[in-house]
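Section 5: illustrative case.
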């Protein structure tokens, strides 16, 4: 099940997400900018986003607990978020990853393209990636993935 995080999810998210202050995590939850994924009431992972330049959805964090990595859940949660952004009127999304992380390959495999970078002192290069959103019936057909897998029929689990 994929849903927006609620206040009751705060403690669990805080246990794993140390890249954001407590106050900002609470703000993100209240603003419906955190999605959580569960299977049979077991927490699997989350996606946290914000708006770049106050106008472009930017995925700040996509994280799954170790047992749920490499099984397609990240693709499913990302696709759910992309559909939510498309349905909200956005036609492009952004994310980033460090150049020394494997996530860049995940994003490229899922339709993201490099569009810039950021180099901070003593840090690896941060790769900025973008994806143009298309109407989702066409996206499903292009990927040949059943709707239930993509999270659109989110009643399972």
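Designed sequence:
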């Amino acid at each position: 099940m994929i849903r927006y995080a609620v206040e009751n999810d705060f403690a669990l998210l805080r246990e794993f997400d140390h890249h954001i202050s407590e106050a900002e995590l609470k703000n993100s939850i209240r603003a419906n900018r955190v999605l959580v994924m569960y299977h049979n009431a077991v927490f699997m992972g989350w996606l946290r986003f914000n708006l770049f330049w106050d106008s472009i959805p930017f995925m700040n964090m996509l994280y799954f607990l170790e047992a749920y990595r490499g099984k397609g859940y990240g693709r499913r949660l990302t696709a759910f978020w992309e559909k939510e952004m498309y349905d909200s009127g956005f036609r492009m999304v952004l994310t980033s990853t460090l150049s020394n992380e494997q996530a860049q390959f995940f994003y490229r495999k899922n339709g993201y393209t490099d569009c810039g970078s950021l180099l901070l002192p003593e840090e690896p290069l941060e790769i900025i990636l973008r994806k143009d959103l298309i109407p989702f019936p066409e996206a499903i057909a292009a990927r040949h993935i059943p709707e239930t897998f993509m999270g659109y029929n989110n009643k399972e689990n």
